[in-house]
Model the fold of this input.
Amino acid sequence: MCRPRRLRQSPILREMVRETRLHPSQLVLPLFVRFGRKLRRPIAAMPGVFQVSPDELVREAAQALEAGVPAVLLFGIPETKDARASGAYAPKGIVQQAVRLLKRELPPLLIITDVCLCEYMSHGHCGVVGRGRAGAEILNDPSLKLLARAAASQVEAGADMVAPSDMMDGRVGAIRAQLDALGFINTPILSYAAKFASAFYGPFREAAESAPKFGDRRSYQMDAANGAEALREVALDLQEGADIVMVKPALAYLDVLCRVKTQFGCPTAAYSVSAEYSMIKAAAANGWIDERAVTLETLLAMRRAGADLLITYAAPQVARWLKEG
Ligand code: PBG
Done:
């Protein structure tokens, strides 16, 4: 009779029959860049994470690359915000400048840029705000033009892949059409396809200075109760031309990850978001959990659920742990 325990007796056999592995090549490090020089502003709820100026960004990215992390995901904090998010598509915007610098200083690094309007909007929403029946509303279609413009300007600056995180309907198609029209037919789109309205983004909003000034994001981000809807969101993004689809947050949505991977079998990313990082850091700082073991176990769970790419603030540390063995 088969006794699974038999194979667990030998460390060599345990390694041979492992179904899932973690490798630095799967990791993506999110980074926050703002104007300035020699600037490293700590994020209170995210120990080890900083808003950095472009010069420091190069250092941070170089260290990640050195540790074996092949890719970064860039978020920008502009100097000024307005109601048209002009900083998101300004040729000399913070992300555009940072991308040019990174491309020059670290050519092997894969640069992914987050495409959203919230950091650049005076009201902090991911789309254009207008007057609707119920007062202020997020307007879907006017937002698409700005998102496509932002993505195009990032790719013109040298971004290798764009990652729309706004959750407007039709944005992947709008961005694809714009990139194709400009000749960037081989620049892929990593879409935040199933992005839930989540309390796990709390620390990020401090990091990106992107908290909405009124209301919340529930008119465009998904309801945490819905799994089947996540599959519809993913199907739409794939139809519109997404090359990699993301589930976000990761840890509380492993069932969604698993369903997405099972149903579509396409390249899938898990975004282990800010509060997932903060919770582990806080418990570890209290001596309540083993930071390394818990971090690796949660990332392994995301891989087991179906994630190919792992987006995590702990990426450089994880890469170093994996190298140590
Ligand atoms: C912007 C965006 C958010 C995150 C990534 N892109 C915040 C939000 O939707 O409010 C969250 C990332 C994290 O918490 O680590 N739309």
Observations:
- The domain at 20-324 is CATH 3.20.20.70 (TIM Barrel).
